[in-house]
Amino acid sequence: MLQFAYISSYLLVALSGQLAFAPPATAAILQPRYGTFVTHERRSAHPEWQDTRRLDPDVIIPLRIGLKQQNLDALPAHLMAISDPESPSYGAHWSPARVAEVFAPASDTHDLVREWLAGAGFGAEKIRVSRNKAWIDVLGATTVEVERLLDTEYRVFKHVDGAEHVACHEYALPEAIAGHVDFVLPTIQPNAKLVKTSHRRRSPRSIPSAQLLQSRTNAPAAAAANNSAGIGGSASLAGCDTAVVPSCLKALYNMTYTPNATDRNTFGIASFFSNTYSQSDLDTFFGNFSPSLVGSSPILVSIDGGEAAINPSSSVGEDDWIFEYAMTLVAPQPVQFLSVGNQQNGPFFSFNEWLDAVDGSYCTSDGGDDFTFDPQLPNPLPGGFNDHSCGTVKAPNVVSSSQAVDEHAYSDFYRQRQCNEFGKLGLMGVTVLYAAGNTGTSGTNSGLSGTTSGYCLDENGSINLNATNFNPSWPASCPWITAVGGTQVKPNATLGHSPEEVWNQDFTMGFFESGGGGFSNHFPTPDYQKMAIAKYLKFLEKNDPAKLKSFNTKGRAYPDLSANANSFFNIGNGGVSIDSGTSGATPTVAAIITLVNDARISAGKKPVGFINPTIYSTAFATAFNDITDGSNQGCKGLQGVRDGGFPATAGWDPASGVGTPNLGRLIEKWLALP
Ligand SMILES: *[C@@H]1O[C@H](CO)[C@@H](O)[C@H](O)[C@H]1NC(C)=O
Ligand SMILES: *[C@@H]1O[C@H](CO)[C@@H](O)[C@H](O)[C@H]1NC(C)=O
Ligand SMILES: *[C@@H]1O[C@H](CO)[C@@H](O)[C@H](O)[C@H]1NC(C)=O
Ligand SMILES: *[C@@H]1O[C@H](CO)[C@@H](O)[C@H](O)[C@H]1NC(C)=O
Ligand SMILES: *[C@@H]1O[C@H](CO)[C@@H](O)[C@H](O)[C@H]1NC(C)=O
Ligand SMILES: *[C@@H]1O[C@H](CO)[C@@H](O)[C@H](O)[C@H]1NC(C)=O
């Protein structure tokens, strides 16, 4: 698990060196014609940031104003029009240029904000406008000028680690301007602390080689490995309850299809420093499970300086085994390694980096990246990436990301902007899959480490040991991505007899892991899942009505579907280990969607794009294995004693989604769509 505060260097960089040369303040004049000030954004107190003093009045503020994009309210309808299987325009994906054009800020928004700035003393010579007109930079504005413009006061905040940042407690905009501006930088942001978590367990139950060899010799895992699943009726799940190998997944998910449109199909795995793979681990794994792949590597797609660094002396992260599985499941389809580089001086990553890379318009739309959460690029620090990957990468048809964070860790604006972008990728025909997390209904931290593992939210929306409101994960709670939950193979399971149940593993000392599931506190239920949710809420009303108080019954719910998350046999750092997590379920589902895309591309059709409206449709119900057994975990509570999470039931549920995929049937159904 990685957990760190994200500290932007932007302000410090901008402030140093300019202090001495700042011109004296000039009066910015309030213009009554734009109406009275209304508060635009307000920061909440954060224990790690101490307000120390007022900022000197003549410091230059690097002011950036993010303009509101137009037509965003129509995004859901546009997305449904091309991804609802009943829609006449199903599959008519948009070009990136059309996406950029339809959502660009209206020109009157741009004109009005410029006019307001000019009236306040910031004429054309002090203004820089981004290429797509989505944001406006104001040059040379002093603290006192910006304070008047935004009816605010800039303060210097000191972080517990000693860094000083500038922020204000709140700021305002005139009534007539507020509706045209999404946000202004720098204002309230530097107070925010982001807890980002990769919810992998690093070889948590590493098995010493000798022991494993023995288990492979006598046992079920080897027999399972030897299965040519799905062929000639010889598929079996023998050993899959102990250690999952590729043939287990092929048997569970009816994967007999061999791709043949590999030159026209694409599949990428978003990866963040310091996750990488080791070729020798891959080759050892391939040698056992997919000999034709020995010597094959993922295709490096470098983002913001990302490398395919394979330093045998350093520990590889979970992407090592993610590639072992993803490449094996889709062979001979190549898999892209969307490798996001190391920014600043720590293992910082942000989902916006790969989004910027695949959609250049996102780099600047709605004010662009937010340096509270995203690395500043180009990176001014020594050794930093001196560029910014904006639109440098063609989005693959399917992108799989095994990272997840807590929904509450981001600001409303940040979440909304990122979620809109996922919707835009859907419009472009890209399937985006994210892991639903490994701690049931309580956030995304691994159950094995981290002080806030398994915590829920209190009434204020803060994580708290005694809190009882479920803590949804991000971006699983965005309705425009597909969130993947976890299952496990039941003991002695056999094919055809409901072999899977909800992933839920209890370890010693109160540690646990289980498939993420829940309801957003910020995004409403999208139409495509309204019926599914209504049915589940009725089930809860009847069986466990008290639980209805623990979450937002009107929220977007996840996961959308699931796959095995338990006990992946893999080769990591030269040894063998067993790893679990929705980190493994996500690339498995991504591989399956990639194979569906292959079948569609072979048949002259488009890739499937945003799949949620389709997988919730009645026609597709028989293409999933409905998971009806088990439940995920709830809040941790005192001494690790947990209340329950969500039980699985017939149909969709917030523990297993619509179920696990049946590739053969999915291909049949998706080939029947235009
Ligand atoms: C694997 O399959 C081969 C060929 O069918 C067979 O000779 C061998 O005994 C099998 N190994 C195991 C562990 O089942
Ligand atoms: C959160 O709410 C509780 C009462 O519901 C209150 O005691 C506590 O001080 C609040 N915490 C913060 C950080 O506002
Ligand atoms: C949780 O509740 C217990 C018992 O009421 C109390 O001792 C403890 O301080 C509380 N912990 C937190 C983090 O609020
Ligand atoms: C699984 O099978 C083994 C061997 O046949 C048996 O000992 C064990 O009790 C079974 N476990 C379950 C949960 O049925
Ligand atoms: C790929 O396989 C499908 C059937 O599985 C076939 O219809 C199609 O023609 C093949 N395409 C190519 C390019 O070989
Ligand atoms: C697996 O997929 C094939 C089509 O490829 C289908 O005919 C078969 O019924 C499926 N098997 C199961 C168990 O659903």
The CATH class label of the largest domain is: Alpha Beta
Integer-rounded radius of gyration: 25 Å
When the domains are counted, the total is 2
Report the portion of residues in β strands. Answer: 15-25%
Class computed from helices, strands and strand pairing: alpha+beta
The global form is globular
SS summary, helix count: 17
Poorly predicted spans: 1-29, 191-233, 446-451
Can you tell me about this structure?
This protein has 674 residues and is an alpha+beta fold. It has two domains: 2-69 and 104-185, no CATH class; 195-205 and 237-671, Peptidase S8/S53 domain (Rossmann fold). The chain contains 17 helices and 32 strands. Strands 11, 12, 13, 14, 16, 20, 21 and 26 form an eight-stranded mixed sheet that branches. Strands 4-5-3-9 form a four-stranded antiparallel sheet. Strands 2-6-7 form a three-stranded antiparallel sheet, with no helix packed on it. A hairpin with a 5-residue loop joins strand 17 (456-457) and strand 18. The protein is globular, with a radius of gyration of 25 Å. Mean pLDDT is 83; it is low at 1-29, 191-233 and 446-451. The chain binds 2-acetamido-2-deoxy-beta-D-glucopyranose (6 copies). One 2-acetamido-2-deoxy-beta-D-glucopyranose is lined by residues 222-223, 226.
